[in-house]
User: What shape does this take?
Amino acid sequence: MKEYFVLMFGMVFVQNFVLNQFLGICPFIGVSKKRDAALGMGMAVVFVMGLSCFVTMLVYKLLLLPYGLASYLDIMSFILIIAALVQFVEIVMRKLAPDLYRALGIYLPLISTNCAVLGSTQMRVIEFAGLPLPEALLKNTALGVFGGIGFTLALFLMASLRERLEFAPLPQPLRGIPIAFLTAAGMSIAFFAFTGIV
Amino acid sequence: MLLDLGKGNIMRLSGVFYRGLVPENPVFRLVLGMCPTLAVTTSVEKSVGMGLASTFVLLASNFIISLIKPLVPKEVRIPFFIVVIATFVTVVRLLMTAYTPALTASLGIFLPLIVVNCVILGRAEAFASKNSPLSSLADGLGMGIGFTLSLALIGSIREILGTGTFLGIPIVFGLDPYTQNIFILAPGGFLTLGLLMGLFNWLGKRKQSPGVKPPSPPDHCRTV
Assistant: This one.
């Protein structure tokens, strides 16, 4: 239990995907203009990241490792698994949970080439693959879900700040994306306070 | 068709090539490929390594995609492009693991993540799937070199301010070891990129080239 708590704290605060690892910067800048959109995107990422970490670990351990394909087919198989999963989730959600689909549907196509998702599946796959199958699956899924939560936290904070920045009297060349990066620098410094806790 | 190097054609190709360097620079104008731009620019060596690896993938995938574009059904083109790109990323990773193991280790997870670099998929979608192999090569080279130069610029600033060295050679002395660090840590990346982007916006405004608006990003990297 303790190691999962450490993993959670690490992925959400210390090694935050956006502010510390530089993964998923495109949606962090692109989908952070409104808080609703940020939450919707965040939820979709948590869901897809957890699911794809689970499935990629399954494939890695049962197919790629035993047949010696891991060193050169991992990128290819992981990105295809993620793309297929996103498509699958979209279809299932539209049929079974139309309300949820209306809320998250537009964010799903944006996720298949989100580098945070591919990054989370690659991040510790070699380390966790040494564990027995159930534990490896559980740990990798936890990593994906907690990483997604950290992403959502950063995205939501950013969106809250940017809603106010809209009205700030800024020099013209800094408006829009440049000031978003400068704000992110401030947030990143704040998150550095967590370094060393885990 | 493939090797039609008339004078007019050369002019057109160099126009395509130049576009990626300045007017449609992938980092500062199109704002694509931000993750590697921020993550690997802690030193010039890593920046240039990442830039060249991306350039190779961009060139090869642009060329192959423009060759096979008549065979690809429109509905499945994105998965198709991703497979082509993933192939070349695997090639580049295996090559770099063999010949530059230290650089590969320092790039870490960002080497496989070239697959989801929006610059590459974006050019496949916006350019290579509509143009001839030769112009796609010119476009890939221009965009790749534009990307590499932008990364090298950010990398130089961060390396000089962060560690006082350039390509590992010490050039600045007397930096306080406690305050300089921020430029090679995460916040320094955001700070440098944000300020440089503001600077280029300001310079672009002064030169004022009306009507030149960066094209909207491709579908999969679009924003809401």
